[in-house]
Amino acid sequence: PVLVVDFGAQYAQLIARRVREASVYSEIVPHTITADEVRAKNPVGIVLSGGPSSVYEAGAPSLDPGILELGVPTLGICYGFQVMAQQLGGTVAQTGHREYGSTAVTALTDDGNVLLGGQPSAQIVWMSHGDSVSIAPEGFDVLASTATTPVAAFANDEQGFYGVQWHPEVKHSEYGQDVLSNFLHKAADIPADWNPGNVIAEQVERIRAQVGSARVISALSGGVDSAVSTALVQEAVGDQLTAVFVDHGLLRQGEREQVQQDYVAATGVRLITVDAADIFLDALAGVTDPEEKRKIIGREFIRAFEQAERDLIAEAAADGEPIKFLVQGTLYPDVVESGGGTGTANIKSHHNVGGLPEDLQFELVEPLRTLFKDEVRAIGRELGLPEPIVARQPFPGPGLGIRIVGEVTRDRLDLLREADAIVRAELTAAGLDAAIWQCPVVLLADVRSVGVQGDGRTYGHPIVLRPVSSEDAMTADWTRVPYDVLAKISNRITNEVKDVNRVVLDVTSKPPGTIEWE
Ligand code: XMP
């Protein structure tokens, strides 16, 4: 792999993704990694990430100096560039010239050096630094500078050391991907042969080795992660797998059919559907408090799953092969964020459904542990999963139960399902799916307002549209959906959905608003 050494902040994940976009497999490691641990991973390249610190600060994250003696081609970025400069005998100084945001850099050599080769001599890059490299280490060529930073990029071809002060992983750096690609393919001579497709073959092998002849169960929610992880296990040990789908009655229009028909047709998985809508709705009767709703839904989900589990355990015992494994759709960001990048720290279990029992007696099968979301989607497509599942935007485990402000009832769910289907259809038709992270559609069941339809007075409920744009759901902004699209949605909902006489738009960012209303 290419190892991305994490010096903090969020840069490392972005770098790891960009390296993979260049068709090279990457892994994130903490900056505390030792030279021996690096050697054991047998890397073909190393990228030192940016980070929030100053190399001067007491306790500033450092790097085992032995890592730069392993003979592995290394690219330093921002803070990583400065760490590299300092360790190799250059000078890092507080020049008093900070650079933030878009900055022009000019190449100092016109001979097409390896790192900046094929790029114009002046380019716009994304900077974010207070300190600067004032003198490059001996034996290094200075490749580029800015108005205030004399050493903005350097190289030592002989030793395979490269560095840039700017952030090539950020889209605002015009030729950032070219810089990374030049480092990987030209400087380090790494072939571009990694892609999500060959992950399938590798994971299938691994799953077979892990599972042996034991039985496996999987909780299928209809979301991307559980769909793709289940499909991989199906590909590997299909005869031993049973998927459990709990229909809690809080799904959107078409989602049950997508799983029961389309997904099963595409994968051939053995699926058990637990029809639990009545149980969930009875348990939710009279409840209006959001936290209480979530607790009830989580609890009932576990009950429903455990019931299916007991039946399956009994069946498995009869046939002699016990159930030993549970499939989980844990993704790489979850692993990294819970300190699992080192492969040793404890991993938070990822609940992408309504929450699974805490005391599960199963070992986990997690075939997506090394992957990012976009890679998971690519694998899903490669496995032939239906596009509505592969492209599905995030949808919360508690489903429409937390999108009805007020008590959850069958009638209200039906109404919300209709409105939600219209919104999804119109946003897709307007080509807005890529611009929108997700668009909760919320029914304000406890609010009524006066309206007029035909020649009659109405006293109906408002529907809230909450389209948001986001990178990771931690922060979000409301999406500027064109007025004509909003007009069409409003028009259709008020005409087609009974008891709704008003459509309103939520124009709150996150923070202060959360994405969901409850
Ligand atoms: P909030 O509302 O906290 O949502 O801004 C952030 C993201 O998480 C989703 N979400 C959930 N997902 N179970 C889930 O699986 C939940 O209980 C849950 N609550 C919120 C939400 O849709 C958004 O993508």
Topology:
Elements (H helix, E strand, L loop, with lengths): L1 E5 L4 H11 L4 E5 L4 H7 L3 E4 L25 E4 L1 H9 L3 E3 L5 E9 L14 E8 L2 E4 L5 E5 L7 E4 L4 E4 L11 H12 L8 H16 L3 E6 L3 H14 L3 E7 L7 H13 L3 E5 L1 H8 L5 H30 L3 E5 L4 H6 L25 E3 L7 H10 L4 H4 L13 E2 L4 H20 L11 E4 L4 E5 L2 E10 L2 E2 L7 E2 L4 H14 L3 E6 L13
Parallel strand pairs: 1-2, 1-3, 3-4, 4-11, 12-13, 12-15, 13-14, 15-16, 17-18, 20-23
Antiparallel strand pairs: 5-8, 6-7, 6-9, 9-10, 10-11, 18-20, 19-20, 21-22
Bound molecules: xanthosine-5'-monophosphate.
Summarize the structure.
Its EC number is 6.3.5.2. The chain is of the alpha/beta class and 518 residues long.
**Which residue ranges are poorly predicted, with pLDDT under 50 across at least 5 consecutive positions?**
341-354
| Spatial strand arrangement across the major sheet | 2-1-3-4-11-10-9-6-7
Please name the CATH architecture of the largest domain.
Answer: 3-Layer(aba) Sandwich
Structural class: alpha/beta
What is the radius of gyration computed over CA atoms, rounded to a whole number of angstroms? 27 Å
CATH fold-type name of the largest domain: Rossmann fold
Shape: globular
Q: What is the top-level CATH class of the largest domain? A: Alpha Beta
| Fraction in helix | 25-40%
Helices, by number, come to: 14
Pathway: Purine metabolism; GMP biosynthesis; GMP from XMP (L-Gln route): step 1/1
Organism: Agromyces atrinae
Protein name: GMP synthase [glutamine-hydrolyzing]
InterPro entries: Class_I_gatase-like (IPR029062), GATASE (IPR017926), GMP_synth_C (IPR001674), GMP_synth_GATase (IPR004739), GMP_synthase (IPR022955), GMPS_ATP_PPase_dom (IPR025777), Rossmann-like_a/b/a_fold (IPR014729)
